From TrEMBL:
Keyword Phosphoprotein assigned: no
CDD domains: HAMP (cd06225)
GO terms under cellular component: membrane
Membrane spanning stretches: 168-190
GO biological process assignments: signal transduction
Name the UniProt record assigns to this protein: Methyl-accepting chemotaxis protein
Length: 277
């Protein structure tokens, strides 16, 4: 595999892991946002239940003989009616009947009894003082008991939602860090393998180059890697083969010319002997 292909493979693996990480992160964040929205709605629901209980109990010790009790009853009744509508809208269909029977009807009964006590307060004050206590036992006590049970259930559900969100956060961390760790390991492994291969190739090329520098024209660069370095080495080896052939041809040509121009030794010696005689 060529160096370019190895680098492209590394980039493709990194990109694939990043796409997986982004996809899983987006999916988990969307699910976590939905879970948080449900948790916030449940918190608002619990707050409405607490406000409803507090409003109802604020009239548990109301004195029908006092003038401001009428205005307080009207104000609290308006708040309770609003809270009842909000709670009913948040409940499931099978839960609404139980809430209406335990809260809405009991509150209506208590309000009517307290209004009756306020009306007879001027003519029969003793009877007016007895009515709120009886109305509390008959209407407000069941109402608050139902709200207390519902609040306990809501606290349990809120704790479950918190646990679910913590689990999702842990899963989100695993889904993000897991693919990132895998991608990092793959990239490091590929880079290490590539580095080792380049080290061996470059070392072999350096050794061959040193032999060539010392005049050993039989040395050749390693060209068995199948990558760009091997292709370059193969071209250089072809150049060296051509160069060696040229040098051999020049050496043969030079040797033949020198032999043809050299004069014979015997005739020259005979001429010198004749001159001496």
């Amino acid at each position: 595999m060529t160096l370019v292909k190895r680098l492209r493979l590394t980039a493709a693996l990194t990109l694939a892991c990043l796409i997986v990480v982004f996809g899983l992160t987006g999916w988990q964040l969307s699910a976590l946002a939905d879970r948080f929205s449900q948790y916030r709605e449940r918190q608002h629901f619990s707050a409405d239940l607490l406000a409803l209980k507090a409003g109802a109990l604020s009239l548990s010790r109301a004195d029908p003989l006092l003038f401001e009790t009428r205005s307080k009853l009207d104000r609290v009744n308006a708040d309770v009616e609003t809270l009842n509508l909000r709670v009913l809208a948040a409940l499931q269909s099978e839960e609404r009947a139980a809430f209406e029977g335990a809260v809405v009807k009991n509150w209506a009964g208590y309000r009517q009894q307290l209004e009756s006590a306020i009306q007879i307060a001027e003519t029969a004050p003793q009877d007016a003082l007895i009515i709120p206590e009886r109305a509390y036992q008959r209407y407000l006590a069941p109402l608050t008991d139902h709200l207390d049970k519902r609040l306990v259930e809501e606290r349990r559900l809120l704790a479950a939602e918190e646990g679910a969100m913590r689990t999702m956060l842990g899963r989100l961390a695993a889904m993000v860090l897991g693919p990132l760790a895998l991608a990092s390991g793959l990239v490091l492994a590929l880079q290490w393998q590539l580095g080792q291969r380049l080290r061996r190739q470059i070392g072999a090329m350096q050794a061959a180059t040193e032999r060539l520098a010392r005049g050993d024209l039989t040395a050749r660069l390693p060209d068995d890697g199948g990558d760009e370095l091997a292709d370059t080495a193969r071209l250089l080896n072809d150049f060296l083969d051509i160069l060696v052939d040229k040098l051999r041809s020049l050496r043969r040509s030079s040797g033949e010319s020198t032999t043809g121009l050299r004069p014979p030794a015997a005739p020259a010696t005979a001429s010198r002997e004749a001159e001496t005689a």
